[in-house]
Amino acid sequence: MATSTGLKRKLKSRLTSSRKKPKTKHLTSDELPWKTVATPKEAGIASDLDGILGLEEVDDVEVVYEETEGGKVIRFKVVEETVPEEEDVQVEEEEKVAGPSTDLLLEDNQIREHTPIDFKSLLPDWHPFELHSQLYHALRNQGFTSPTPIQSKAIPVAFKGKDVIGVAQTGSGKTLAYGLPILHHLLSNANPTQLKQQKRPLKALVLAPTRELALQVSSHLNACLNSFSENTVVDVNREDADGNPVLSQSQSKKRKEKGKNKEIVPVQSKPKGPPLVSVAAIVGGMSSQKQRRILDRGVDVLVATPGRLWDIIQEDDDLAIQIRALRFLVLDEADRMIETGHFAELDNILRLTLRLATEEEIEPQLSGDNELSNPTRDDQSLPNPLQTFIFSATLSKDLQRNLKKRSRPKYKSKNTKPASTLDDLVMKLDFRDPEPEVIDLSPEGGVVSTLKESKIDCLSNDKDAYLYYFLLRYPGRSLVFLSSIDGIRRLMPLMDLLEINAFPLHSQLEQRQRLKNLDRFKSTANSVLLATDIAARGLDIPAVDHVVHYQIPRSTDVYVHRNGRTARAMRDGFSLLMCAPDERRLVRALMGSLGRREDEIPEMSVELYLLDKLKARIQVARQIDSAQHKIKKENHEKNWLREAADAMEIEIDSDLGLSSEEESKGLPTKQKRKQTQAKTAALKAELKSLLAQPLVARGVSTKYITSGSRSIVDDFIAGDYHETMLGMKKTQAGQDVALPKKKRPKVVKEEYEEWNGISAEC
Ligand SMILES: Nc1ncnc2c1ncn2[C@@H]1O[C@H](COP(=O)(O)OP(=O)(O)OP(=O)(O)O)[C@@H](O)[C@H]1O
């Protein structure tokens, strides 16, 4: 142990070093520190884009794909690593021996105090849980001063070793409701000496339905570890040249540059010891080699989507064996996993977690010949009891009731059929707890109290104009849900032409692009995300102001989860349903199954005069889009024709003005093409002029601002005038909805005395 003075001096040096952020430098591919190495041809290494994609495998080189005006550009970000100073290493060694220190208070990412922290007075609401000190630090750093209701209820139950089925409204902190008990258990039971000697076995598996949600859960859990104890926590999704985990950015230490004038030589800082607890994500669409390496190294908590995980399990017997001995299993948004087509994979993974009675053998439904070894175990052979947590904002009451009644799984033998519905699947889960605890905090009617709902009734064809109106009228971060990818593809060019900052998100985009679009949406205050329901569940995007249901969601659960992207963590939020005449029936059914009436959702008020002006813009934008589409299609056909002619060694007109031949094939002549191009240019000029015209509400005089039937001078003085719609007040969307109709009092059937005919007395 160091003396207190010695420790102080070293801490000071850490103070300076911890402020240093790793620098990043943009380089071209030629500037990277290449080294020529021979690779076997058969391996097909780096055949992709001349090795550029392979670069993702290189530590500290981040490949960034950017759309620019000149086309797609690939950039390389090189993160300069730091070499820890001897003093830092010494402090870390000391801390390692002493265990996680409680004498550093990290606030605003800086070490402020050097006294033991009294969490009892700093976090009184958390104190009764007696969490590991590292978690207290993390909660404090993140400003989570008190537990949310689901955390208050679920954490003590989980600490008792019980299985938990948690149902709570969207954005209510369910991730930490299961995450904190898991991390507490792992931190409290970690044995640093043992970790150094052997590969850590997998202890917790969190299954999530979408890649984005899995990555988010993983970073949420990592944030609870990385806030403190710099030497004990690493981001295992990053690794050094030897495949060792690299300390996360907050842990970067001072570096020694190798030569001032030289090119950057990335220097790897070796971790000073294995992390106490590590969390990693395994999802589709990202480098599977890297993910396999992470697994080979060993990880404590794995957050995964079922598809990619099952792919890996099929080739990795060791992982399958580890899953059989899990300590924690979590199904996050289990109901959605059933919908995403991952059902068979999920079913197979869950089969691995079942207890096996000595006489029974259960085999997962493996495809191919790569059968897993399946050791028969009885209940007693389990080293640790498995604890199962199922969390969602929507789990049917029937399912919750059934879960309470059951205990042992229904899987009996390897011939058992896979489950076919969520109820079926969850009922087959092998809860070790004879009475799993159901905690249901879901709000009545499925709506979070801080959410304001509204509705616009309009024709299908007018939805674009209403959406455009809404986006201009209420700037902010708007998440627009569409039910099809085609719908997004149609709307995106319109948004571009109308100069709306919109990004698409759907399953047919590359994973890299999905994450990038999500990031752009997160970091742009006034932006729109046009998304399918892959964005409906679990995504925790800070400050989404509005959710727009461009099409009516296909189920109540989807409605609840889509709405849940706004009004999170007790913040205000707004949702708008766009309802075409043929969708009214669906809205009625939707509200009915939430135990509500259709007219409980108030109408959004719309300035029709301005809407008409916007319709004119939309019309021109649509014409441009269709003309551009036509040109694109023609170019495509032209290219096809040229290639076909080349292949057949036929000579065609140099400019493809194939005149008669062309016309006979239905292709436009050169003249016609020119006409289309000229028409498009004229339309673009028209749209440009329409976009430049100010949007002035009816009755507003821009010449004499104090006159007109709608004087705008007071708004100017008060500073609450709308910047793009003159004459409108700058209001929040929630202020422009009519009050919801009051619930009609329930008709209480009066009990009448049985009618026995006119009495003799009358
Ligand atoms: N105790 C807390 N105090 C304040 N904020 C918290 C607390 N716990 C979690 N949060 C924050 O609340 C937000 C929502 O948390 P989380 O994503 O876990 O919600 P959720 O219930 O899983 O939502 P969904 O059902 O939509 O998946 C996150 O930004 C999280 O960081």
UniProtKB/TrEMBL annotation:
Broadest EC class assigned to this enzyme: hydrolase
Subcellular location(s) of the protein: Nucleus
Pfam families on file: DEAD (PF00270), Helicase_C (PF00271)
Broad class of where this protein is predominantly found: nucleus
Motif Q motif boundaries: 124-152
GTP-binding in keyword set: no
Extent of Basic residues compositional bias: 7-26
Cellular component, GO, one term: cytosol
Domain of life: Eukaryota
GO molecular function, a single term: hydrolase activity
Stretch list, region Disordered: 1-33, 239-270, 363-384
UniProt keyword terms in alphabetical order: ATP-binding, Helicase, Hydrolase, Nucleotide-binding, Nucleus, Ribosome biogenesis, RNA-binding
InterPro entries listed in its UniProt record: DEAD/DEAH_box_helicase_dom, DEAD_box_RNA_helicase, Helicase_ATP-bd, Helicase_C-like, P-loop_NTPase, RNA-helicase_DEAD-box_CS, RNA_helicase_DEAD_Q_motif
Catalytic reaction(s) noted: ATP + H2O = ADP + phosphate + H(+)
Occurrences of domain Helicase ATP-binding (ranges): 155-413
Compositional bias ranges of the Polar residues kind: 367-384
Biological process (GO), any one: ribosome biogenesis
CDD domains (alphabetical): DEADc_DDX24, SF2_C_DEAD
Domain DEAD-box RNA helicase Q: 124-152
Family stated for the protein in its record: Belongs to the DEAD box helicase family.
Name listed for the protein in its UniProt record: RNA helicase
Source organism: Meripilus lineatus
